[in-house]
Every structure is written in structure tokens, then in C-alpha cells.
Amino acid sequence: MNQPIPFNTGRPSDPARRDLPSIMESVARGDQDAFSALYDALAPTVFGIVLKVVRDRAQSEEVAQEVMVDVWRQAARYRPEAGSVTTWAATIAHRRAVDRVRSAQAATDREQAQAARALTTTADEIAEQADTRLESEQVRRCLRGLTELQRQAVTLAYYQGLTYREVAETVHTPLPTIRTGMRDGLIRLRDCMGVTP
């Protein structure tokens, strides 16, 4: 098969559903016409399963397309005694959808951990430099040079030890805005205090 058939979510045809085992045998031999029939019969079910897990239509369409490509590639592995063709495809769909959700969550967790490490490192560097080289008046002056949101975010995080999420909830501001504000505020503080990166 050169390229996947365009994804659709139409209703499966009943004759195709009844004949899925023999269609599957043809697909396993590389019959593209048989795969078209299989696709039409399974795509709505596959998409529905994926959408329930992923909950984002665009991503669900992408994952469902990947599942159908897997069905094409793995057709020879299908064993009727292990269950129906629909059940087999549904199992692949569920696994793929769960993998997508886990992958997205892992990426978010990595970003948050990286941002927290960067904030801690930058805050520690600023604190050390401020304690040893700068007087508290310079710190106050530099803090006054920040925007109100930056000042609040940095003060809550650095002096009160709040997390990004806790700062966002405290100042009733979206989390991405807090992350950006804190990063920019710490950079401005570092520059104002003459701390070299």
C-alpha cells in the first residue's frame, strides 16, 4: 500500500461487517481493494474508541489513521480464534490512544520539571549574588522595575515558595502567563542586579 486511504467516520456497511474474516484474509495477502472495504467497516468504530480516550478530534483522527495503517501492516497476524476482526482492531485502537495520551502527559511533565529546575537555579543564583554583593535596597529597587504581575509572581514563588500553579491560582492568572512573567521577571532582576548568566 503506497499511502493510507483518507480517514472517514461514515457508518460501516453491514455486508462488509459480516464478511470481515474473509476480507481480512485478502488484506493479509496485500489486497488494497479488500483493505478499502475493511477500512470502511472498521474506521467509525476505531475513531469512536480513540476519540473517547484522546478527547481531541484532530488528534483522534490522526491516531485513528495510524491504527488503520497498523491494521494494514499487521493483517497477517490476525487470528480468528483470538476474537473478531472488530475486537482485534478495537484493541489496537485503544492501545494507540492510551499511548498518545501518555506521551502527551509525559511531555507536559517534562516541560514543567524543566521549568521548575530553571526557576530554582536562576532564583538560587540571584539569591546568592544578592546576599554576597548587593544590598537589600538594590533588590527592592530592581523589584520595583518589574511589572506588577512579574513582581507578584517572583515574590510569591521566591519568598513564599509557591509553585507555578499556586502562583497562578493566587493571582487569578493563566498558568502559561505566570510562567512567562516569572521567566521574564527573573531575567530583568538578574540584569538589573548585574548578575552575569
UniProtKB/TrEMBL annotation:
Limits of the RNA polymerase sigma factor 70 region 4 type domain: 137-183
Keyword field contains Transmembrane helix: no
Keywords: Sigma factor, Transcription, Transcription regulation
Protein name, per record: RNA polymerase sigma factor SigK
Molecular functions (GO terms): DNA binding; sigma factor activity
Signal peptide: none
CDD domains: Sigma70_r4
Species assigned in the record: Streptomyces showdoensis
Domain RNA polymerase sigma-70 region residue range list: 38-105
Pfam families on file: Sigma70_r2, Sigma70_r4_2
Xref: PANTHER family: ECF RNA POLYMERASE SIGMA FACTOR SIGK, RNA POLYMERASE ECF-TYPE SIGMA FACTO
Transcription in keyword set: yes
